[in-house]
Specification:
- The protein is built from 8 helices and 13 strands.
- By secondary structure, it is an alpha+beta fold.
- Strand 12 and strand 13 form a beta hairpin.
C-alpha cells in the first residue's frame, strides 16, 4: 500500500485498531485492560504519549507499532537533539567580496568538521543491539543550510541545522557537551574561528536513549508469538528516536517496538507491506489474548 505515512506509521495504526476487533470477532474477552492509544507529536518529542502516561494510561506491557518489520523486534532507542549552528562572517557588497569574510564558505568548513566528528563517533561507540545491524549507529549530521538575503550581498551569517544522536546507555547531555567543545576547538587552528566561534543552539526535538532488558518477560513472550506466526524467532535490535523511551523511563511500563515494515519512510513512494500488516496483527492479537488472559 503506497502513500505518505503508509509505513510510518499508518500501517501500525491499522494494526492497533484491528486488534480489539479481531479479539471480539473471535469471542475473546480479555481478562485485563486492553488500551489502544493513537497520539500526536512522535516526530517532534512525544508529547502525545507523555500526556497519556501523565493521565495514568500505563500498563504492564506496551507494543509500539513503529515499523520494525514483522521479523524485527526493537527493545531500545537512540537519544537525539536538534541543533542550530551560526557561522559568523563579515558581510557587504559583492564588489568588495575579497575584503570580506563570506560565512557560507566558512560554513562549508564547519560542515566538513561535523562530518569528521560523525566518523569519530562511529569509530568509538558500540552497542550489541546496533553493531551488527547498522552502518550508521550514532547519526550526527547537517540537514539544513540557509543564509543571505540578496543575490549580490555577502551575508553576515550562515546557519546550519541538524541532529546529533546517542546510543542506549549514553547521556544525551554529555554527548551534546562533547559536540559543542569539538566545534569550539576549531578556533585552535583557525584565527577567524578563534575570534568568531561557532555558536551552538539546541532547539526542538530532544530525546533520551532507553533500553528494555532482553531478559524481560515481554521480550520472550512476543518473540514466542512471532515465531509461531512467522516460523522463526525475530531479529532483536535497537531503533532510532521514537516514543519507546517514554513508557520505559517515565511510565513504569515495559515496552517494545513491533510493527509492519516497508520502504521509503518520510519520502517519495513510501509504502507498507500489506502482508506484514496482517502478520503483525496476528502476532499482537495473540499476544494480547495470552498476556491479558481470558475473563472468567
Amino acid at each position: 500500500v503506497y502513500g505518505r505515512g503508509a509505513v510510518d506509521m499508518k500501517g501500525g495504526c491499522a494494526v492497533n485498531l484491528m486488534v480489539p476487533r479481531v479479539l471480539k470477532a473471535a469471542g475473546i474477552v480479555p481478562g485485563g485492560d486492553l488500551i489502544v492509544q493513537s497520539v500526536v507529536d512522535e516526530e517532534n518529542g512525544g508529547n502525545g504519549t507523555l500526556s497519556c502516561l501523565l493521565r495514568g494510561y500505563t500498563a504492564d506491557a506496551m507494543v509500539i507499532t513503529e515499523p520494525s518489520s514483522d521479523i524485527g523486534l526493537g527493545i531500545a532507542q537512540r537519544g537525539a537533539q536538534f541543533f542550530r549552528l551560526k557561522i559568523s562572517g563579515a558581510g557587504g557588497q559583492i564588489e568588495v567580496k575579497h575584503d570580506l569574510v563570506n560565512p557560507i564558505g566558512r560554513a562549508l568548513e564547519v560542515y566538513r568538521a561535523v562530518e569528521d566528528y560523525s566518523l569519530m563517533r562511529e569509530s568509538s561507540v558500540s552497542h550489541p543491539l546496533y553493531d551488527p545491524l547498522y552502518k550508521t549507529k550514532a547519526p550526527v549530521g547537517i540537514c539544513r543550510v540557509y543564509g543571505g538575503e540578496w543575490p549580490s550581498t555577502v551575508p553576515d551569517a550562515c546557519f546550519m541545522e541538524g541532529s546529533i544522536e546517542c546510543m542506549p546507555g549514553e547521556d544525551i547531555e554529555t554527548v551534546k557537551e562533547s559536540f559543542k567543545k569539538y566545534l569550539l576547538a576549531l578556533g585552535l587552528a583557525d584565527p577567524w574561528f578563534e575570534k568568531h566561534p561557532v555558536e551552538v543552539r539546541w532547539f526542538g526535538l530532544r530525546l533520551e536513549s532507553a533500553e528494555l532488558s532482553a531478559a524481560h518477560p515481554l521480550v520472550g513472550e512476543i518473540s514466542r508469538h512471532i515465531e509461531r506466526v512467522k516460523g522463526h524467532l525475530p531479529i532483536v535490535g535497537g531503533g532510532g528516536g521514537c516514543d519507546l523511551r517514554l513508557p520505559l523511563l517515565h511510565g513504569n511500563t515495559p515496552a517494545v517496538i513491533y510493527g509492519p515494515g516497508g520502504e521509503h519512510a518520510h519520502g517519495i513512494d513510501e509504502y507498507v507491506e500489506f502482508e506484514q500488516v496482517m502478520s503483525c496483527l496476528k502476532v499482537i492479537a495473540s499476544l494480547a489474548a495470552d498476556w491479558c488472559g481470558k475473563a472468567d
